[in-house]
Amino acid sequence: MVRDGLYYGLGAAVAAVLLGFVNPWLALPPVLLGAFFLWFFRDPERVIPNGPGVVVSPADGKVTSIGEFVNAGQKKQRISIFLNVFNVHVNRAPIEGTITSLFYQKGKFGNAMSSGSSDANEQNIVTMNGDGQSVVFKQIAGLLARRIVFNPRTGDTLARGQRVGLIKFGSRVDVVLDQRVELRVKVGDRVAGGSSILGVLRASADTGRAESAR
User: From CA 121, how far away is CA 130, in angstroms rounded?
Assistant: First the structure.
């Protein structure tokens, strides 16, 4: 469980005790709220896939869009993952590599399902280099999300699937990949942070197929 769950749960427990002295029935709402906080901030263990060039999902949720765009003259692929309040909200590193850039952008708290939220909403933008590629992932706030947590710093080296932070309550994560990455997901798929493969660097994917054919 994420430590925040204990803080929220403890606050609800204190409120339940105080209200219980007034009327036992008044303690029920904070007890239920505390139970929800403990459940919401769960942090299950995940089996992290091995292999060169593998990109895993940084978050649990549903793939809501996949598209291409041009950045600095280079074509990129973007995968958007929407997290509702029922998803695990712990975020994980998509690849093994080094954080080369961190940028926190203040902005709106609009509906994370909207395509415009990728640019307009408050977000934390992380760039990682490693395993022969560069991957950008954005922790994007939504209507309910008001706190983005990211623990590593620029220059830190992370393992694939390593826990890096969380977004509190409903939100969105965008993953920007090189065109050389062969996607392994489609719109509508549900993914699990750290264990679902979003794509594989094409050179690595081709090598894997060649070895399998022998």
Answer: 28
Rounded mean pLDDT of 19-34? 83
- The secondary element (H helix, E strand) that includes residue 138 is strand 133-141
Angle at CA 109, nearest 5°, toward 151 and 198? 55
Kindly give, in sequence order, each residue whose CB lies less than 8 Å from that of residue 135, ignoring residues fewer than 6 positions away: 55, 94, 95, 97, 127, 128, 175, 176, 177, 178
Q: Furthest-apart CA pair in the chain: how many Å?
A: 74
**Is residue 28 within 8 Å of residue 20, measured between CB atoms?**
no
- The residues that are catalytic are 171
**How is residue 153 annotated by DSSP?**
-
pLDDT band at 210 (very low <50, low <70, confident <90, very high): very low
Task: Report residue 58 as tokens.
Answer: 């940084």
pLDDT per residue over 108-163, tens digit each? Answer: 665 555 566 666 678 899 999 998 999 999 998 866 655 788 999 999 999 999 99
Q: Using only C-alpha atoms, what is the Rg of the chain?
A: 19
Q: Model-level pTM?
A: 0.82
